[in-house]
Amino acid sequence: MELRTLRYFVAVAEELHFGRAAVRLHMSQPPLSRAVKGLETELGATLLHRTSAGVTLTDAGAVLLDEARGLLDRADRVRARVAAAAGDAALTVGILGDSTDPDVVRLADAYRRRHPHVEVTVRETDLTDPTCGLHAGLVDVALTRGPFDRTGLTTYELRADPVGALLRADDPLAHRAALAPGDLADRRWFRFPEGTDPEWQTYWNGGEVRPGPVVRTVRECRQAVLWNGTVGMTLVGHEPGEGLTVVPLTGLSPSRVLVAWREADHQRPLIRSFVRTAVAAYDARREPSDGSWFR
């Protein structure tokens, strides 16, 4: 059995759909189907029940999924240790905004336990670059939020946070149970500097570009609301600070926390391990141990 074939199988087993697994693996569906069928022939066992709606695991498939995760995890550990011994023992992590997020702290603890000899440099960035320097080559991997231009990048969703309108506590709308973007259509919103990724700018302006004061940091966002009575979006779960309040916004997609890296770095062991550890630390939707984000 080849490790790549096991990664293919794990992706299908977790997605329970060949099409979704192919997208996840950045490949077309026919060679993926052939690889899994060849694995079944090699093992002499049916691993998946195939239907028009997708697939389900057989008993044999469930056993292989558990074993394959362990094998792939160990293989990535070997790669990381060899890379460290060969001199690739440093990683620069870009973090958007507040690195005191409990999930970031949990990730740092887990990654340090896993790679105690790796030197990690953290580059904390403001709100003007949601890629945290990935496009510019300033970091190896980023913990950030979408949406943004993902050209040349691969991302994986770690968490989705509901958003709300950041208002002064004495704002006429501050005591509403919820607001829609239309309720704030005639208000000034804080905005990011010219040249900021347009997808990112539009999202944080409630779906359209609006006039208002220019801000670069979370602190500046709060101050713009406090001093000018402007409106902005923030996370419902964040403490807004004295004199401010957050009212949930309806009709808007949540703010998605992402781990992002350059497509060209798929095979770097330290990045592979970072992504896997991040998914575990954030308790994301799928188990992280397989390494199957990478071909």
Give a brief outline of the structure:
The protein is an alpha+beta fold and 295 residues long. The protein is 36% helix and 20% strand.
Write the layout of secondary structure elements.
Layout: H1 3-15, H2 18-24, H3 29-43, E1 48-51, E2 54-57, H4 59-85, E3 90-96, H5 102-114, E4 119-125, E5 141-145, E6 153-161, E7 163-168, H6 198-204, H7 218-228, E8 232-235, E9 244-248, E10 255-262, H8 269-281
Parallel strand pairs: 3-4, 3-5
Antiparallel strand pairs: 1-2, 5-10, 6-10, 7-8, 7-9
- Main sheet makeup: 5 strands, mixed
What percent strand?
A: 15-25%
Radius of gyration: 22 Å
- Figure out the total of helices: 8
Number of strands: 10
Question: Helices and strands, in N-to-C order?
Answer: HHHEEHEHEEEEHHEEEH
Average predicted local confidence, pLDDT: 87
Globally, the shape reads: globular
Distance between the termini: 15 Å
Counting helices, strands and paired strands, the structural category is alpha+beta
Helical residue percent band? 25-40%
Low-confidence stretches: 285-295
Q: What spatial order of strands do you see in the largest sheet?
A: 4-3-5-10-6
